[in-house]
Amino acid sequence: MLIARNDVTQQQVEGIVDNIASQLEVDGGAMRKREYWGLRSLAYRIKKNRRGHYMLVGLDANAPFVTEMERQLRLNEDILRFMTLRLEVIDASPSAILSRKSDDAERGFRGPRPMGRFESGRRRGFGEREEFRARQAPGEVTPQEPGRDAGVADNP
Questions:
Q1: pTM score, whole prediction
Q2: Domain 2-87 has CATH 3.30.70.60
Q3: First-to-final CA distance of the chain
Q4: Which of 21, 23, 17, 19 lies closest to 36 in space, CA to CA?
Q5: How confident is the model at residue 3 (pLDDT cuts 50, 70, 90)?
Q6: Which residue, 54, 66, 61, is CA-closest to 95?
Q7: For residue range 104-114, what is the model confidence (pLDDT) as tens digits?
Q8: Which residues fall within 8 angstroms of residue 16, CB to CB, at 6 or more apart?
Q9: 13: closest CA among 47, 42, 41, 55?
Q10: Beta bridge partners of 49
Q11: Residue 97 phi/psi, 5° resolution?
């Protein structure tokens, strides 16, 4: 996993990973997984950056190559952070981050509108609430809201 500065483009981040992949091919390893997670917000500022390009890379490599790759990533000014983990098996299926993004795209309907608003989006006024209209005596005039026409009385 590596996080690149937000000033660089996605193509530059892909170029960094392509460089790693080409060196890996020469060394005899293989790249098993490669996922670009996009420009995401960081939990805290890193080197005056609030956002970063996230990239997940699954490599099948030996220990000297991993050490050299980490050294090169440490020297690269475009890389904010990186983390290397050793896994026994690299899962080829999409990660949880990418599968969650596809779920968000499929969700369109977010449920019914709350009862506190009219169809226009305007909030209900004090005199327009049903519990206050029920308490009025028959023939009693409801209080007028500011900005409403004072010549017309609302009778339930």
A1: 0.62
A2: yes
A3: 64
A4: 17
A5: very high
A6: 54
A7: 555 556 666 55
A8: 2, 4, 76, 78, 79
A9: 55
A10: 46
A11: -65, -45
